[in-house]
Specification:
Order of helices and strands: EHEHEHEHEHHHHEEEHEEEHEEHHH
Number of helices: 13
Helix content: 25-40%
Oligomer: single chain
Largest sheet: 5 strands, mixed
Radius of gyration: 24 Å
Length: 412
Amino acid sequence: VKFNSNGQSLRSTIERSNRDALWLDQNGDLMQVLVLQNFLFFGNASSLSNYISTMFEDSPITNNTAIKYYIPPKPKYVIIDMTIVTGMDTSAVDVFAEISSLCEANTCTVFFAGLTQKLQSTLLFGGVRPSSSGSYRYVRFLPDLETALGKAEDGLLENVLNIKEKDIKKADIRRRERLMSDADDGFLHALLQIDEQHDCDFASDLDAFRPYTSVVELQPGQSLFESSGGLVDESERGLFFIEFGLMKVERNSSYSTTRSGGFGSLRRRLGPNVASSNGSIGHLNARAPRAGGTYVAKRTSIVRDAHSFRLARFGPGWVVGAIEGASGGMRNPGVHIAVTPCRLHHLPYSNIEQVETENPSLVLHLFKMMSLLSARRQEVTIDQLATLHSIINSPALTKPMSRATMGALQSV
């Protein structure tokens, strides 16, 4: 075992709301991570079994003993990363089979991440197989540690925090409030959630953009842009303020980037009529939809590429297209998909360019808000680099610690 940690120290780069991020920080020890190294055979693989078994040991503290420190809970997810494993003997497969059975007996899901084709074949030959999709999947093979962390976080939020159920209820409440109101205050509501989540004060000023926006309503599984089976034409790209609902962004990992500046790939997708950047925030010069109109989703599914991975997941308090607008267009913006019913407020780039000539100070406030959101996203990337450095440079562990010992150390 090269490295052992939990979800309180390790996190994915997926964007989360402050509510979800805070909950994961407090409950991240429901997810345990072990990074393995070198060649695995029965002898050294057995030590991994000891690490896993200590995670499910009952606490030695009895009812007669005063608990003076927090005992970590039994995990709901165990991630075994084998990215730097060079090979595996077939005798080691029995150990992984025991680990899988132990996790299933404790209602815990185990993710095997970073498996090469040869390692995966060895596990399959020895009887360690991913659970079928029709049942609760206690064993899964995932391509890398980042994907496994994201899936485990999603599982905790969905199955423990019940995030989807809560967001659907919030969406229903917002619909009723809007029906009872004479005016549609959805755009202001989206701005106020940004202020609340990021501790800023932009809503009162940016509400002046309301006449330049239109509403986009998406159903679960519906894509945002027409190029991936959605509603909004590529030439109408812009900022999308989330009133309610959860969105995710998937990106094709095989999409190659270039070292040239600007927004080359996005420009190729939009066509030759898109103007180049001229210093204006509305540099994409896109064709605007009718302000005040409403797009309503009809189709509810899209075809995903086999090489796609989830880049972000966000809800109220975030803006779709903020980095794209501030940077001049991303090379590969990704595919934006609704996870739950969503209501977005679309502010096209061309409308922003129009406001820029009429009220430059208003656009400056918008730029400041976009910069703040972009900086928050960069913080996550920096933290992830620190995590990778810790994994690579940490010394190999010698023996596991019990949950009680771990709790005592954390209380110091």
